[in-house]
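Review form for a predicted model. The reviewer records the input and the model, then writes brief findings.
Reviewer: anonymous (R2)
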Amino acid sequence: MSIHLEQEVAEYSERRLRLATAITDYADWLDRQHGIDAERTLRLADTAAGLRQDKLVVAFVAEFSRGKTELINALFFADHGQRLLPSDAGRTTMCPTELFANADELPSLSLLPIETRRRSESLARLKHMPIEWCRVLLDPADPRQLQESLKKLTETKSMPAVDAIEMGLWNGEDASEHHLLRADGTVEVPAWRYAMVNYPHPLLQAGLTILDTPGLNALGAEPELTLSVIPNAHAVMYLLATDTGVTRSDLEIWQKHVHRHSNYHVAVLNKIDMLWDELKSDAEVQATIERQAEETARVLKLPRSRVFTVSAQKALAATIRGDAALRVRSGIESLEYLLAHQVIPARRDMLYHAVSREVATLLDESRADLAARLKRSSDELIQLTQLSGKNRELIEQTRASLQQEKDSYDATADQFRSTRKMVQGQGEHLLSHLSEDTLDAILKAARDTMENSWTTRGLTGGIRHLSEEMGSRFQQATRLADNMLDALEQAYMRFHRKHNLPKMQVPRLDLGAYRNRLDALTRETDAFCKDPANLMLEKRFMIRRFYAGLAEEARKAFKLARLEAERWLRIALDPIMTRIREHKQYLDTRLASLQRILENMGTLHSRMAQIKQEISTLRHDKLELARMSEQLTV
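Model under review:
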């Protein structure tokens, strides 16, 4: 692992945690402010928690025997002096493997039995069901135990061919797989469906998650990988072998599972040492490698700059032996540079700017709150200063004028309560479009459409019904939100014009990201349905599995959309109610103060001293907010 890669991951982690800490400080500051709504502090707490839990996900995708696992060892674990993941000849990871670090649990290898493919639960749900996993504790201080334990990733088992067909693990109609059928009617399949490795490596502890996804069969057998896991990765490394170039199965994986996704992806031609020839000059060898890289770029329709040539095995050996020249020749440094200076900074900046935009709106509101409170206190102090030494009649006139202002304000507040009640009713109607019951009804209708026809047409019809119905609900919810916002903005303007309250800017409810996710799922579905390998009636299991994965992803999008709508409703209603109460309290306090002065003229100067202290505190709060604002925007 290069020092640059380690530094960039560490910087990514440090900046992420520094931003989370600054947001937490800001939330604490808000908690100390009297009368400020709790919604903002809740939003900030969620944002800070999300930052601390954020992972940088890099997925490695390839057909079997492309050296993918060896490349993971070379890039991230060479400093161990040995292979962390098994990658000997004929001994490679047989199931999708996720490597991460969780300090709250002991280092371990968790394995999901292949038989769970008969179950309807998604991988995402099974991850939260510990009883379904076989768990092996790992000892990072014992290299032998670590190596032996991780060999479980290579395990296979015999299974009756009929069961393998049922679970989508073997295709008896594919001539290229006939040789896998044994005389006793069994075939060899992976022993495990999915593996999770919790390992305390510095890069993993800093927030890196690595996905090792082996082979076309594994990807095809787990639609969830295609629908969710790979699309959610921040970078995809697609491996090919330099000596063979792009084979048919390589191209199939690329077209089905990699290039359609919008995340950052590159092609890595591995095993360039197969082309090293002592009978050729270095220039001739390099020219051969370059031709392969250019041809790969042409076939995959990638810029040449997105195709890398490496020898993972030589890179690993060079790092372990301290052979700097061999390490340079292996080509690993260009890939490390890509990760360190493009992938990681891009993710870091994207995350930072997204959070900054979220927090910037809240900072603007806090500044407006402080400015309004400072102005009110200053106005009251000026008024009391002008009343100093005046007679009781003048003070009574001032109190009467203030009472009129309060009466007018109360009338506006009563009017707003009617608006608020109407908006709350519309809000309940809005949320009903995104409720669990609504979603269950949509999913049931889609299943009913498909129930008697597991053909491509039936699948497409069911899924299109699912997508159209959900999209329609999103549109209806958005229209309702727009109508509600128009009513609220008119009410806000009345408070601003009549009583000089700060202008309130509530953003419109935007469910576009979730609609886009549905559209992406629909595109994946169309591609799945058009795939000739999935057109046969015998593929019912795969179609059901694909639909189950699709429904799971749709449920996630629906749930997130509802949470967004609930959050928006709180943002739209709670802040203005807080400001209404705060301004009412301010008017009540001023009236009570003037009444006390009328009853005892000696209290005027003590009230002025109290206001001066309040102004001093508010100015201190303003400086503190400015300091935190600088930390959050650097």
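Findings: The longest strand covers residues 56-62.
Further findings: Residues 415-572 form one domain.
Recommendation: see findings above.
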